[in-house]
Amino acid sequence: MAQDLTAFGFEALSDPNSVEQILENHEGTALVVVNSVCGCAAAMARPGAKMSLHNDKVPAKLYTVFAGVDTEAVAKVREFLAPYPPSSPSIALFKNGQVVHMLERRHIEGRSAQVIADNLKAAYDTFC
């Protein structure tokens, strides 16, 4: 499940120090997927995130953390996602260290991967 994204070019962040270093000092755009074992991650979030990258504009960097596995890294990512509540899966687009677009679980669950991809593509067109 984790390799579904890393094999596609997402960099796995597995400790809080790497999360802090990357997100705190990042210039430009970055997509962060909070991955999980749930069905909506497998059927909607991960495929939608990958499909979204077939777009003229895309984030400069791609990252992922795995809820339930990389507990401390996920907690650190969630600090950067405040004021959004903890949500797995979730997908955030950062620009210059700030969240500019967020898909919480409630935006993912019950929607198709294509809807997720289209939502992210619209964000990329605006912010990337």
Topology:
Elements (H helix, E strand, L loop, with lengths): L2 H4 L4 E2 L3 H9 L4 E7 L3 H14 L8 E6 L4 H11 L8 E6 L2 E6 L1 H4 L4 H15 L1
Parallel strand pairs: 1-3, 2-3
Antiparallel strand pairs: 2-4, 4-5
Helix pairs in contact: 2-4, 3-6
Question: How is this structure best described in words?
Answer:
The protein has 128 residues and is an alpha/beta fold. It has one domain (3-127): Glutaredoxin (3-Layer(aba) Sandwich). The chain is 45% helix and 21% strand. It has helices spanning 3-6, 16-24, 39-52, 71-81, 105-108, 113-127, and strands spanning 11-12, 29-35, 61-66, 90-95, 98-103. The protein has a 5-stranded mixed beta sheet with strand order 1-3-2-4-5, sandwiched between helices. A hairpin with a 2-residue loop joins strand 4 and strand 5 (98-103). The protein is globular, with a radius of gyration of 13 Å.
Descriptive key words:
128 residues; Glutaredoxin; 6 helices
Outline of the structure:
With 128 residues, this protein is of the alpha/beta class. It contains six helices and five strands; from the N terminus they run H-E-H-E-H-E-H-E-E-H-H. The N and C termini lie far apart (27 Å).
